[in-house]
Design goal:
This protein is of the alpha/beta class and about 375 residues long. It is about 40% helix and about 15% strand.
Length: about 375
Amino acid sequence: MPRGTYPVFYVAGWYGTETAGDKLILLGIAQQIWAVNPKASIVLITSNIYYSVSSINELASLASSSGSHPELVSQLLNQVEVRGDFIVPRLGKGDILIFGGGPIMDDATLFLWLCWVKRLHRRGGVSGILGCGWGPLRLKLTRRWAQELVDAADGTILRQHSNMVTTTSLDPSFLTWPIIRHYRSDRRNGTAINIRFVPKQYGAPPAKNINQQITWLEDKLSWLQTIVPLSGVSIFSTHELDQEGDLKTTATLMSHFKKNVDMTPPTLHDILSLLGHSQFSIAMRYHGAIISLLMGCKVLGIDYNKGGGKLSFLYNDLGFSTPPASLFDGDSPNNYQIENWNTLDTETIEVSLISAEKTYQKLVESLVEKLKENITKPRIR
């Protein structure tokens, strides 16, 4: 495809180690790009080309399974290219660099992203932030980099509110609802646990090592058994490449349940199939909670902070006045009563989806218009 015929969108982020949530984020962003320009090319920037190629194939299979999106399947297979991050310094006029999904957080990678954006702008390109999370940013230096990154972008949508004046919207994974909704079933039973070892620096419960955290989780699950049927438990992880902590946690929990509980394969199809037939979900990852909500489960999110943490922003965006229950909120039984766990009906999802699609498509359109303006300007060396 000749450069300039259609815009080229380079999508960067934490790709190469993408979780199930990251894959849905990518699919949601791609859908909005193609809603604006069906012929646009997408280049996924990754640290692991082989793994990200398999992610694209997995998304194409997911779209195919819906039975009603043949054009999307073709776009994923024919209009998406996967490249290493070495290509980013070559970008310039005619290119749009998007940071799509995943958190802007305490990590030295932020400085690399900032350098990419500054170089791209000098060469006449355009950058945008579509649906990234904000934080945790506990370090003064990374907070400065994050602020500069947002200030430098030609358009920004964050997936939760922050202290900055910028546009917010639902997480891009919500945009995949039309593709994944067929996994929802009216016949439900059992409890799915989205297992995760939460690193101490991310606000994990007071535990010096993984064994103490497992003991903490076991205590919570013992207590929860008085409320939900944990006898029919299934365990899943949304992270395929970084499962060491998850697997060790799972193995230790086997003694708690006094039986073997297989971990569901971390593919989107298997996770969606499990949650689509589960009645309850205890989610230790943000996207584990989101996917559970989309699949119709009664969800308890184990977030990093009291008051629901990141999930509280999500519920506010969806129109709920009270934050979700969190296992970090203390030991009071009132925090965990089933009636306090949140679910999403299809009407709420679809109304919110219409608003989110407009927000994301408006930003994509603005980036394309900005690119057209830049093409007519002289290049700054």
